[in-house]
Amino acid sequence: MTISRRTTALAVLAVTSVLSVAACGGGGTTTGSGNGSATGSAAAGQKGGTVYWLTKRPAEHLDPQRTYIGRDLANENRLFYRDLVSFPVGKTGEEATKPVADLATDTGTSSEGGKVWKFTLKDGVKWQDGKDITCEDLKYGLSRGFATDVITGGPNYQLGYLDVPQKDGLPVYNGPYKKTGQADFDKAVACEGKTITYHFNKPWADFPLAIASLRSFAPYRADQDKGDQSNYAIFSSGPYQLQGTWQKGKGGTFVRNPNYDPKTDQTGRMALPDKIVITEGLTNEIINQRLIADSGDDKYAVTDRKIPGSMYSQIDSNPTVKSRSTLVNAPFVDYLLPNFNSDVMKNPKVRDALKLATDKTAYITASGGDKYGVPAKSIVNPDIVGYKDNAAFTGPDAGDTAAAKAMLQSAGVTLPVKIKYTYSGGTPESDNAAAALKQGWDKAGFSTTLDPLTDTYYDVIQNPNTKSDVYWGGWGADWPSAATVTAPLFDSRVNGVGTNPKSNGQDYGNYKSDAVNSLFDQAAKAADVQSAATVYAQADDQLGKDVAYIPLTVEKFYFLHGSGITGYAQSAATSGYPDLGSIGVKK
Amino acid sequence: MSETQRDMEFGSGVAVETLGSTDEKAIAGRTPWQLARARLRRDKITMVVTGIVIASIVIAILAPVLTALGVLDPETFHPELIDPNTGGLPIDGGGGISWQHPLGVEPGTGRDVLSRIVLGVTFSMTVALSATIITVVLGTVAGLVAGFLGGRTDFAISRVIDMVLSFPQTLMLLALSGMFIDIITNAGVPAGNPSNGVYIVLVLGLFGWPTIARIIRGQVLSLREREFVEAAKSLGASNGRIFFKELLPNLWAPLLVYGTLLMPAYISAEAALSYLGVGIKPPTPTLGNLLTYSVNYAASDVTFFLFPAITIATLVLCFNLMGDGLRDALDPKADR
Amino acid sequence: MFAYVVRRIFVGVIMLFVMSLVTYLLFFAAPSDPARYTCGKNCSPELIEQNRKALGYDKPVLVQYGEFVKGVFVGREFPDDPELKKSAPETIASCPAPCLGYSPLQSATVTSLIAEAAPISISLAFMAFLMWMVFGISGGIIAALYKGRFADRALVGSALVVYSFPTFFIGLSLYIFVAIKWQLTPIPVYTPISEGGVGAWLSGLFLPSLTLALIYIAGYIRLTRAFVLESMGEDYIRTARAKGLPQRQIMGKHTMRAALTPIATVAGLDLGALLAGAIITETVFNYNGLGKLAVQAATTYDLPTTVGIVLVAAAFIITANIIVDVLYAVIDPRVKYS
């Protein structure tokens, strides 16, 4: 779910000490299915028909243990990879991200202060070939993530949390292929009939949130596993199964899975269409032009690609098209990071001046205007529990050139201050946005060189020796808690700032503060969401005072869908993408 | 004519076609300049397009000066001229055309379209011209050496030519960019657009020279047997002297024609590569960058959609027609 | 003649061999690290080292090339790891001959990727070929017959103007206006004959092949016009005319035969180059042929796939050259090959 815009998902989330928030754990049965939708048309759906999903970026992985992109995580859960618990279909607000039982009989029970978790599989849950989904399948799925030489690309929280002994920073268990240390893994994950028990080496209060958000804990059938060759092989446990093969860059077609029993599913997956066709490789312009035209099969199309700014006028001038558009919060925040390893940016007054000179309004206008996003006042997304504006970033959105210039003049540096801005470029919007920032900075006395990276971005800026002064970043929480925002981005211990000469993890600006680190520790020990959020807010205040980052915008998803679509919904349950759990077509 | 690999999709087809078909024709040994000039004067189309080409070259040279003087302003954003609620379309209809901005303003940024196009001509022509020079120089040297020395050298060079022509050019340009740009940067060229620019110039030249070399080789093979070369040889002239004093002067005409025809091919190539994401990157305004951006506005800002495309098409068309005209004028046998 | 053909094929094979070495060295011996690009953007240093071993990038580049060549003739297995082969043989990808490598970024063998993409590029190339030959040659003949008159100028001029616009501009304009806005054609999506029949196959191919054809038509009109004019000036045509043969017969029987021979040569070479994928057209229309596969491979540093496509493309071009030269010898009796 982490960053999925412009460039990509992230480098491996190194073993995090992120701990959080108890509220969403615990037992309790769940509400049944609902017909509501977060946004868009919500006519009661009929069964049948074909839904088309048009998109640009090819899925890099459709292997549950290797998927780390919000769109793919959401679609996998709705279509073919059921998990122990899932986010419900058809809920809004906080309900949308409250896990409900899916393959499990309940949302799990924890003991030993969150260090041990137990789930029991339902009866009658089956794979697409009719065989029962077993506890061994769950255990096998989890074990795959330990084969870091084969199962690459996915999140790896399991490596840090599961109580498997470590050697040289890596677990002694190396996965089901080479099976070194199998006994240690068997101790950490135990099967007893249909009940699976996970033993962690530290408390993991919101483990169910992680299960529902990621696919790391999804079951996998050992006899279907061909290692890397299974990257696009989909063996379904959900309402749909792949017809033929998946072709990267082209897509695939999903049809009903005859062995899926809706009676075992209380998450609200409606499974309305008979067929779902996913087409990859189209451009945003083509996708949205086709959705505007709304002819033929495109009437039954949805997309996860934003409407480009160049088309806003076509939509605004046409009420019927406009009625098919939706504008919802995306989980992403764009921000800037001063590089604390750069000589100029070590000077706090220069950072302050940079903050004051940053023109968020111009950035947003160049990126696509108010439909692209709204000015951000913190790196934390306002939708996250306990959000507070960061006082350091509540100045004028267009920046304050005079104040910035004055600050820069008092900083004891010779003007103009030469800086290099590295960002993930290659699209007209991103390049225009960078040029807009440059203009604001240059007016205040900086002299900015733009450095767009097009192919590898995070790879480059993760290197602490990269010589640039300011970086662009985009972030979305892995699950909806502040614990997956500021801590993974600014905890210098987790990211190895100053200790790892090769990588700064996700602390791309090489920020290091003991005060902030100890606040993160305090938050991790907090008893509930609210008190944790208060401490995270204190940490955010300190980050603001240090100008560890400069928030730019909270992104919006401005999407179109075809006129023949019913039950259209986008909510936090699917990271803001169209929810295939409720979407159907009009007959 | 065989074994001329042509990458038409890329936009160099007509040029190479004309190269190929003149291949076997010997150019008259006498200085043809007066004849040619007279013939050119009679050819109205060629005169007009040559005028346009010269005018664009003058503009391209002046553009950086005009930018420095503030007459052209390709960089300044004009948020007041665009409406953020329409995705940054110009507030004034017709693409924001006004006295200050004769071709309107760029959607999303409000930058002056005329300034960007004029500078785009400068950047694109610089790329095309540099690549043309490299192509012509490499091709001439290889063709001269192969044709004049003959024997094993000729065989070796001819096989290299065959091989380079058998590579899929567009794909090589694309695939080599990552590592070659790194190499160029490590060699001391500033990172970013300077390196990107050097890369496409070099690679266009490296994949372009064999066609020229083949033509020059053919010319040299026929010239070698001519009396004046024989005479020079029997007088004991050195190879160098024969190269520069006897052969080269007779190759100017074809080189001028082919050079002119390479320009439009490379202007198109720059545009195509920009679309594929290789080459000089925005916000530097090359014609390719401008067009790649402007095609997004096909349905919402017609003037902005059309201006960069028309500019490229005009340049390409004029250079092609001028090349044709020059060839007709310089080659009295051509009857087309 | 036979000896000539054999010699050409022999030289072609040697050339392909040398090109494979050059290509391999270009991509795998460059100072950049090929292992760095094996796991996309989500790579840790440990992972890079693991992949380096699994893919054999830790070996000297000439040894790697030797393995590559061996793979082409006898096949290979990825990863070549005896330990893994013992404990989990099902995870090892077998790559039977002709094996062009394994792409860890696509989780598939390069041969299978090319085999999937090739039919699309071939369909597109032939359809475009058909269009530009029909329109180009007929346009060229008309222009030649009406030399200097309006039809001539209009044809040659408009073809040149269309030709002056970059391919992607023409393609995108056709896509956005003709297919999406005016809905004159269906949205161009490639449908194999096995899935949608000939009708769907043809309608999906129409706009992309038209885009490609438009680029070539200008060249072919001019070429045809020039050759027809040239052969109309030949002595035997004058003789035929003097004999009082009707114009139609002169055109059909004598002029065209002479003019078409060189055109066939050029056309064969163009088609050969195009079979390996029309990069821009396929990108514009999202056609998953060799051209788009190549773009995808090149932009994600998928080196095994890139090398595979380069070699396949080179093979197409070299083969086209041989065929054209041999055909030329067959068609044109004046050409003698020793």
UniProtKB/TrEMBL annotation, chain A:
<feature type="signal peptide">
    <location>
        <begin position="1"/>
        <end position="22"/>
    </location>
</feature>
<dbReference type="InterPro" id="IPR039424">
    <property type="entry name" value="SBP_5"/>
</dbReference>
<dbReference type="GO" id="GO:0042597">
    <property type="term" value="C:periplasmic space"/>
</dbReference>
<dbReference type="GO" id="GO:1904680">
    <property type="term" value="F:peptide transmembrane transporter activity"/>
</dbReference>
<protein>
    <submittedName>
        <fullName>ABC transporter substrate-binding protein</fullName>
    </submittedName>
</protein>
<dbReference type="InterPro" id="IPR000914">
    <property type="entry name" value="SBP_5_dom"/>
</dbReference>
<feature type="domain" description="Solute-binding protein family 5">
    <location>
        <begin position="98"/>
        <end position="493"/>
    </location>
</feature>
<keyword id="KW-0732">Signal</keyword>
<dbReference type="GO" id="GO:0043190">
    <property type="term" value="C:ATP-binding cassette (ABC) transporter complex"/>
</dbReference>
<dbReference type="GO" id="GO:0015833">
    <property type="term" value="P:peptide transport"/>
</dbReference>
<dbReference type="InterPro" id="IPR030678">
    <property type="entry name" value="Peptide/Ni-bd"/>
</dbReference>
<dbReference type="Pfam" id="PF00496">
    <property type="entry name" value="SBP_bac_5"/>
</dbReference>
Automatic annotation (TrEMBL), chain B:
<keyword id="KW-1133">Transmembrane helix</keyword>
<feature type="transmembrane region" description="Helical">
    <location>
        <begin position="197"/>
        <end position="216"/>
    </location>
</feature>
<keyword id="KW-1003">Cell membrane</keyword>
<feature type="transmembrane region" description="Helical">
    <location>
        <begin position="251"/>
        <end position="277"/>
    </location>
</feature>
<keyword id="KW-0813">Transport</keyword>
<dbReference type="InterPro" id="IPR000515">
    <property type="entry name" value="MetI-like"/>
</dbReference>
<dbReference type="GO" id="GO:0055085">
    <property type="term" value="P:transmembrane transport"/>
</dbReference>
<feature type="transmembrane region" description="Helical">
    <location>
        <begin position="45"/>
        <end position="72"/>
    </location>
</feature>
<dbReference type="Pfam" id="PF00528">
    <property type="entry name" value="BPD_transp_1"/>
</dbReference>
<comment type="similarity">
    <text>Belongs to the binding-protein-dependent transport system permease family.</text>
</comment>
<dbReference type="InterPro" id="IPR050366">
    <property type="entry name" value="BP-dependent_transpt_permease"/>
</dbReference>
<feature type="transmembrane region" description="Helical">
    <location>
        <begin position="171"/>
        <end position="191"/>
    </location>
</feature>
<dbReference type="InterPro" id="IPR035906">
    <property type="entry name" value="MetI-like_sf"/>
</dbReference>
<dbReference type="GO" id="GO:0005886">
    <property type="term" value="C:plasma membrane"/>
</dbReference>
<protein>
    <submittedName>
        <fullName>Peptide ABC transporter permease</fullName>
    </submittedName>
</protein>
From TrEMBL, chain C:
<feature type="transmembrane region" description="Helical">
    <location>
        <begin position="258"/>
        <end position="280"/>
    </location>
</feature>
<feature type="transmembrane region" description="Helical">
    <location>
        <begin position="200"/>
        <end position="221"/>
    </location>
</feature>
<feature type="transmembrane region" description="Helical">
    <location>
        <begin position="9"/>
        <end position="30"/>
    </location>
</feature>
<keyword id="KW-1133">Transmembrane helix</keyword>
<keyword id="KW-1003">Cell membrane</keyword>
<keyword id="KW-0812">Transmembrane</keyword>
<comment type="similarity">
    <text>Belongs to the binding-protein-dependent transport system permease family.</text>
</comment>
<dbReference type="GO" id="GO:0055085">
    <property type="term" value="P:transmembrane transport"/>
</dbReference>
<dbReference type="Pfam" id="PF00528">
    <property type="entry name" value="BPD_transp_1"/>
</dbReference>
<dbReference type="Pfam" id="PF19300">
    <property type="entry name" value="BPD_transp_1_N"/>
</dbReference>
<dbReference type="InterPro" id="IPR000515">
    <property type="entry name" value="MetI-like"/>
</dbReference>
<keyword id="KW-0472">Membrane</keyword>
<dbReference type="InterPro" id="IPR045621">
    <property type="entry name" value="BPD_transp_1_N"/>
</dbReference>
<dbReference type="InterPro" id="IPR035906">
    <property type="entry name" value="MetI-like_sf"/>
</dbReference>
<feature type="domain" description="ABC transmembrane type-1">
    <location>
        <begin position="118"/>
        <end position="328"/>
    </location>
</feature>
